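User: Second chain of the day. Same drill as before.
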Amino acid sequence: MAREGDMGDRRPAEVFHPGEHLLDELNARGWTQTEFAEIVGRPVRTVNEIVNGRRGITPETARGFAAALGTSPEFWLNLDSAYLLWKAREDVSPIERRARMRAQYPVRDMALRKWIRSSEDVQVVESQLLRFFEVPTLQAKPKHAFTAAPRRSAPEREELSPIQKAWLYRVKHIGDAMQVPRYSAKRLGTAVQRLEAYREAPEEIRNIPKVLAECGVRLVIVEPLPSSKIDGVCIWVGASPVIGLSLRFDRIDNFWFVLRHEIEHVLNGDGKDLAILDSEVVEDSRREDLSPREQAANNAAAEFCVPQKELDSFMLRKGPLFSRKQVLAFAKTLRLHPGLVAGQLRRRLDRWDLFGEMLVPIRSTITPVAMTDGYGHVCPVDV
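Assistant: Same format as last time:
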């Protein structure tokens, strides 16, 4: 496609109204406007207004002119279109830039979430996007460190959607602003054991941000953008790990599984070169084609939620049917919230309809004490 300034898109200095072409045709034939009006069966006023550039060419008029003057209807319609386009010759480059920005980034969703400020000035919006995504131009790709690593066994990197990129960078910006001690893998390993004591009572979840911060791990919660399907992410800001959670499912089982999954990534040093962006973690956790890194994180998460040998024994003894009473008794024996047992049974059996009443919500417990963007909380981190 020719661009403005190319030979195929040069703008003429002036385009004349079809009326001037009509006047030339009448003069060449020696016809008056009144005679021509009689020929084409139109009022004299109509012909006069066209000749003087005060009326455009309709399809009916074009057909009449073509029949009378031996041309085609398209000739007159094209003259009229060319004239109208020439008159509307304002600069459309802002429209092109706005369309390009919205094709690459979820501008509307970002503005609604106050990640960028809405503006009629295309330059203002573009400048904000460049800062947010840390790129010199809209055509540039985000930094290598914030490209998603593949979750499947295939070696190819997974291309992020614009919505996923925006969510990931919001986690990164908030993590950047947090102040925590230097990261210690040893302290984090010990902290996992401390977290086990919080599995029984949902209200204990409020202690998690502080425990992780003491290990040098920054916990960030960002409400997901529509259709992103993101559960969590593990990225590193320098030598400091950042765990981002979306809490898209407000359930105790999903929360603990995703959190422990991301902690395992941190302990294994995952995400230093490529972000570990996890979507549909629990739903996909039984897949056999996941990468070894993802399998390891899933195994650690499942073991944390419910010791798997204990769960194997329970399922062997009580299956194939499981009652609410059995689940409650088993959870009490292990000092776990029954929602964790219910979640693991649903996962193992691929029966997502079971024990929904046990899966208590946790969002209102964790968001007030964590660095949270969304869910009614405004994070005071600007880009």
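The chain is about 50% helix and 5% strand.

User: Great, on to the next one.
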